[in-house]
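Standup notes
- HV: blocked on the assembly model, inputs below
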Amino acid sequence: MATYRRGRGLGDRLLLLAVVALAIVWIAPIVWVIGLSFKPNDVLMRSTGGIHLPPFTLKNYVDIIASSQVFAWMLNSFIVAIGQTVLTLVIASLAGYGFARTNFPGRNVLFVLVLAALAVPEQAIIVPLHTMFAAVDLHNTYAALIAPRLAFPFGVLLMTQYFRAIPAEIEEAALLDRASRLKVFWRIVLPLSIPAQATLGIYTFLHAWNEYFWPLVSATKPAMYTLTVGLASMQTNFAQTEGIGFLMAQAVFAGLPVLILYLFFQRHIVSAVAGGGNK
Amino acid sequence: MAELSLRNVSKRFGAVEVIRDLSLDIPSGEFAVFLGPSGCGKSTLLRMIAGLEAVGSGEIHLGGARIDTMAPGDRGIAMVFQHYALYPHMTVRENMAFGLRNIGTPPAEIERKIADAAEMLEIGELLARKPTQLSGGQRQRVAIGRAIVKQPRAFLFDEPLSNLDAALRSRTRIELARLHQRVSSTMIFVTHDQVEAMTMATRIVVMNQGRIEQVGTPMEIYQRPRTRFVAGFIGAPAMNFLPVTGVTGRGGMAVARLPDGSEVATEVPIGAVKAGATLTLGVRAEHVLPGNGAAAKVDVIERLGERTLVYANLSDGSAVVYDEPGDVQLSVGESVALTIDGAAAHLFGPDGLALHG
């Protein structure tokens, strides 16, 4: 028993060491980005070393906030990210429940099609998407920014698998309790799938918030830029004119809302990444 | 409280016919147990009564009304599932209230019904807990409580004791029997455990391969099994089966000769025996009497405490199990003499049917 304990203690310590090492590898670039964002650009032109030494400046952040459109872009990003998250949850849940619990002709073929869509890279469909939205004159609208990613195969797959894992007995008990199909879904299945909803919701929100390529293609008017596209547009020629410090400040600024989201939903995110959703 | 009637019910899953043209009447207020081995169709039959499985063909009637065309919730049935199927995100109280709310029961009445059921099942202090905070036995009670508050016309139980430990299982058996006396609803209980069937049922329906083998009271089934399958399935240890090498008549009754040359005078009329048919003699352990008779050698001794089961081989090698008192002095390899009580022995024909007068 004592040997067993000692062995486990050593294993735990080694694991802790590995985790700390990994954490340093992950955190170091972020610390560096934050450090650089508080440095004057002319100093950084000469050297990007010594981020912990003065001089420091807030000018990079002041420059961002001084741009009248930054908060409008942030609002755009919020509308797009929230819209995508809510609608993705609705669509993925309904589709997932359909695949998991109902029997209709062609179900398996359809499910395989959904799985196949997982293999299609986002970039491959940009041109057809652009053509489609141009044809219906929807570019530079929220609809165009939100819609393309709503049919999200991974989300459908995730919800299907989760619903399948809920014992059918529970739903049958509800049917015998005189609940309609819709009520079973709404009162029993949805509440039980909150861990999966949280996973998918957080994942979708973060992806939508960080999305760059599609908004860059679709939103051509500055008023419709999302934060990512807007901040990039402030760099006339990447880092050369505005400087590395300004670039880094933009990265921090764009990341702040996500950080705040993380602080609010920390517990859910951890369990989402842990993947189980087991209580 | 209602009579349940199944009329020519069939069901197939793909190419497999799980229920074959089955007809059955369960009088109002009975505690009927569907008993049979895994895959005999008993759970499918229960699920068809509940409406969770569509009926292939045939009709199901409850209290005179046809129910197989109704939605599960409209049939006036409550079911206790094998894994309890409590709603994990609801408290015990909400679990019990859910069905009542769905039919628009006034809140005060819901509270009263929950309080009554909670008192009957002694789960009053659990009402605010969630299912994950309950033990297996407590979940079981809540599942039963959820069924009781609906005051259904019939209760269905799908192997609800299989997840409980032995002590809790026997306690719950007694409580279920008591519950049946109190609510006097028709109850249908599915199990593969013959002890559960024998102890709780007022009527046992023995099933095998999608068919009913026999319907009867526990003692009818035990004492007068209609088929060799029923005889072998009911009773522990299983009934002894010995090949019959010849039959003669004596006083109108059949006398069976066994491979070791011994004879058993049964009470089966010789008229029931078809000439030349291959017969099997069946006799329970308690009807094989030690003392004198055919020679046998003790093979295995199983001490159960109040009784001892002795597995012995007759001179021709056929195995027989018989009863001895708990403290019997015996050892493996010892020679014993055994007599089969012919009055309690059964004869089965080549089709597996028992021969009766």
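- HV (later): unblocked. Chain B has two domains: 4-233, 240-348. Helices of chain B lie at 42-50, 92-102, 107-121, 136-148, 166-183, 194-200, 218-223, 228-233.
- Next: hand off to the docking folks.
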